[in-house]
Amino acid sequence: MIEWVNIIVLVVSTILFLYFYVRSVSPAQLEKKMGEVAYQKCKTNRLIAGAFETVTVINYVIYFFYPLPIGIPLVFPWEWTVSILIAIIILIPSMYLMAIGVKDAGRETLEPRKEHTLYGGIYQTVRHPQAIGESVMWFPIALFLNSPFLLLYSFIWLPVFYVMCIAEERDLVLRYGTPYLEYRDRVGFLIPKRKK
């Protein structure tokens, strides 16, 4: 029974994370309806999204102890140390992208602000480094827990973060206008563009 409740909570939390995060990256759109308080509302939505993301991590851990009885092997066919090694190999670059993205985005990572300007640093190479790093970090969590099911579930995060990036881009065009469109032409979405 616990395993089914855990999976239901995992799926619902994943959906709610996406819902609140998309709402958190739409301050310019929301500002048209409610004024500058929209930025504070988006910050609140970002924190709620973060809470649901934390719940999903907890669900991953609970799954380790209460896996679904659905015929998928409970562990990988190799030694756990192999899973850990693969996880570390994936985790290091994804954490690097996350960390450098957070550093270069500054307070905007958690708190959208009207006066914020376009980013520099890694954002001059790729437009969504944090999303790349964070979407991939679910695979190491599944590997650390040595769970084939969780590894398969982790693929759901790739379209989730893609949708979040698309939603954010729409609002950034509203916020910054032509400078953002020019930036978008110059800098790759998830993969760096080749220099002309």
Write the layout of secondary structure elements.
Blueprint lengths: L1 H23 L2 H8 L2 H29 L14 H26 L23 H8 L1 H7 L3 H7 L2 H20 L1 H9 L10
Helix pairs in contact: 1-3, 1-8, 2-3, 4-5, 4-6, 5-8, 6-7, 8-9
Q: Can you walk through the features of this model?
A:
There is one protein chain. This protein has 196 residues and is mainly α. It is 70% helix and 0% strand. The protein has one domain: Four Helix Bundle (Hemerythrin (Met), subunit A) (Up-down Bundle). Helix 1 runs parallel beside helix 8. The longest helix is centred in the N-terminal third of the chain and has 29 residues.
Return the CATH architecture.
Up-down Bundle
Q: Radius of gyration, Cα only, in angstroms?
A: 18 Å
Give the helix/strand class: mainly alpha
Order of secondary-structure elements: HHHHHHHHH
What distance lies between the first and last C-alpha atoms, to the nearest angstrom?
58 Å
The low-confidence runs, each spanning 5 or more residues with pLDDT under 50, are none
β-strand percent reads under 5%
- Total number of distinct structural domains: 1
Main sheet: strands, sense, barrel: none
User: In terms of quaternary structure, what is this?
Assistant: single chain
What is the percent of helical residues? 55-70%
Helix count, DSSP H or I runs of 4 or more residues: 9
Counting DSSP E segments of at least 2 residues, the number of strands comes to 0
Average of the residue pLDDT scores: 91
If you consult CATH, what is the topology?
Four Helix Bundle (Hemerythrin (Met), subunit A)
Q: What's the shape?
A: globular
Q: Write down the CATH class.
A: Mainly Alpha
